[in-house]
């Protein structure tokens, strides 16, 4: 036991709970008067102890067992102390660890709530999931339906990975476009097991090219799969001069077999992307940087840049289908076209943008201009085989990215055009 003077009061001997045993080793008589007979403050406890280590040891146990005294439960929630913690019983209509969130509102910053998409309601919010998932029994959790469920990072034991090391490997949805000589020239992102999104500029560079899916850091990983491009579809309103609508959809001849290294990214609903992912969360650019004649894998951290700041820095106007990101670290190498922007939300990765042309030499390399992929629709025009009636099907990326693939045999044309 610890005493600091001969005439110090004897150590407290009264019976306590098991969690208080350590207090008997550190408490002095003056502390009993200050902190047991009545509630004490941190400063009052500091006056008793002669070093910070002893103070911290006491305070962690003392305050940790009486946390309800700080009234943590909001909106008339009832607090109950527990060992080194507390529990809130929320009033009707509220939820969360501290009863901070109304059940009829969407609170994306909360641990509770929807795993993916949320819609407010009169009495309660409603949840839905990205492609390849279904709602769990609690109607909030999103459960993967199969191995191709989008936006997941898994370790070698097929467990969901909470962290990833930037330099270890590329995103499983990152792809590399290869010319006839087998050299990489642009990037892209896997949207479905047989569809890749890249830029129109990249898609027009070569008449014939292949795609390496699951490419490693230098684009030549043994786990990479070479896929043939069946069709390429340039945005119908792509403007080569201004770079507006600089996107293209590539249809592969075969489906990619999904595993830890080959997976599609999730595509978010428009409101979710524009009000939650893009303005509020840090994002990652995944792509390829130019190293002489070769492309090397690259990842960069990006934060959202307000439109007015972007216009001033780039000296350009923005459409409602564009937004800017600010690099959090300096770069001295160009990124290849087709590099993409992804944002993690509650363990799932969502595509929010695709990078067009790299800024010119005399412009700001820290500010990047992205096409907002949440504002893209796919339009499929096909001919009804029973008559000559043409049908137009509009499918928004992030809701149902594509109509049933069996309809592809009926498709006369496939275009990507802006949401209006």
From TrEMBL:
Places the protein is found: Secreted
Which InterPro entries does this entry report, sorted A to Z?
Coagulation_fac-like_Gla_dom, EGF, EGF-like_Ca-bd_dom, EGF-type_Asp/Asn_hydroxyl_site, GLA-like_dom_SF, GLA_domain, Pept_S1A_FX, Peptidase_S1_coag_factors
- Chief subcellular location equals secreted
Query: Where does the EGF-like domain lie?
Result: 64-100
Q: Which CDD domains match?
A: EGF_CA
What GO molecular function annotations does the UniProt record carry, in alphabetical order? calcium ion binding; serine-type endopeptidase activity
Peptidase S1 domain segment(s): 159-384
Q: Where is the Gla domain?
A: 18-64
A GO cellular component entry from the record? extracellular space
* GO BP term (any one): proteolysis
What keywords sit in the KW lines? Calcium, Disulfide bond, EGF-like domain, Gamma-carboxyglutamic acid, Glycoprotein, Secreted
Record Pfam families: EGF (PF00008), FXa_inhibition (PF14670), Gla (PF00594), Trypsin (PF00089)
Q: List the disulfide bonds.
A: 90-99
The identity of this protein, by name, is Vitamin K-dependent protein Z
């Amino acid at each position: 036991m610890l005493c600091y003077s001969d005439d110090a009061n004897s150590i407290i001997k009264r019976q306590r709970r098991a969690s208080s045993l350590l207090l008997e080793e550190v408490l002095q008589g003056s502390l009993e008067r200050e902190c047991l007979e009545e509630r004490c403050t941190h400063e009052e406890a500091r006056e008793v102890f002669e070093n910070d280590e002893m103070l911290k040891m006491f305070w962690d146990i003392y305050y940790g067992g009486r946390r309800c005294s700080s009234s943590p439960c909001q909106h008339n929630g009832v607090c109950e102390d527990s060992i080194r913690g507390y529990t809130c019983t929320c009033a009707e209509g509220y939820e969360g660890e501290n009863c901070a969130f109304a059940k009829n509102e969407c609170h994306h910053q909360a641990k509770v709530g929807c795993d993916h998409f949320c819609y407010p309601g009169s009495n309660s919010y409603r949840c839905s999931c990205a492609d390849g998932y279904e709602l769990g029994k609690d109607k909030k959790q999103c459960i993967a339906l199969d191995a191709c469920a989008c936006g997941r990072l898994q370790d070698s034991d097929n467990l969901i990975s909470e962290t990833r090391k930037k330099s270890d490997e590329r995103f499983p949805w990152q792809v590399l476009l290869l010319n006839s000589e087998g050299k990489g020239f642009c990037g892209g992102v896997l949207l479905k097991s047989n569809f890749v999104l890249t830029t129109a500029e990249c898609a027009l560079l070569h008449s014939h090219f292949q795609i390496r899916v699951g490419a490693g850091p230098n684009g030549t990983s043994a786990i990479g799969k070479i896929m043939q491009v069946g069709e390429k579809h340039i945005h119908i309103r792509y403007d080569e001069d201004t770079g507006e609508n600089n996107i293209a959809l590539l249809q592969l001849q075969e489906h990619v077999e999904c595993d830890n290294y080959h997976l599609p990214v999730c595509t978010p609903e428009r409101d979710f992307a524009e009000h939650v992912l893009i303005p509020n969360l840090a994002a990652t650019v995944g792509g390829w940087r130019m190293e002489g004649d070769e492309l090397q894998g690259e990842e960069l951290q990006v934060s959202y840049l307000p439109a007015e700041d972007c216009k001033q820095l780039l000296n350009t106007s923005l459409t409602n289908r564009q937004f800017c990101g600010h690099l959090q670290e300096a770069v001295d190498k160009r990124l290849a076209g087709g590099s993409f922007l992804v944002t993690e939300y509650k363990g799932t990765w969502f595509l929010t943008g695709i990078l067009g042309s790299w800024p010119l030499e005399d412009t700001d390399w820290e500010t990047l201009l992205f096409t907002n992929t949440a504002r893209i629709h796919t339009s499929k025009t096909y001919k009804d085989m029973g008559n000559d009636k043409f049908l137009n099907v509009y499918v928004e990326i992030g809701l149902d990215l594509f109509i049933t693939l069996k309809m592809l045999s009926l498709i006369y044309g496939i275009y990507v055009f802006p949401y209006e």
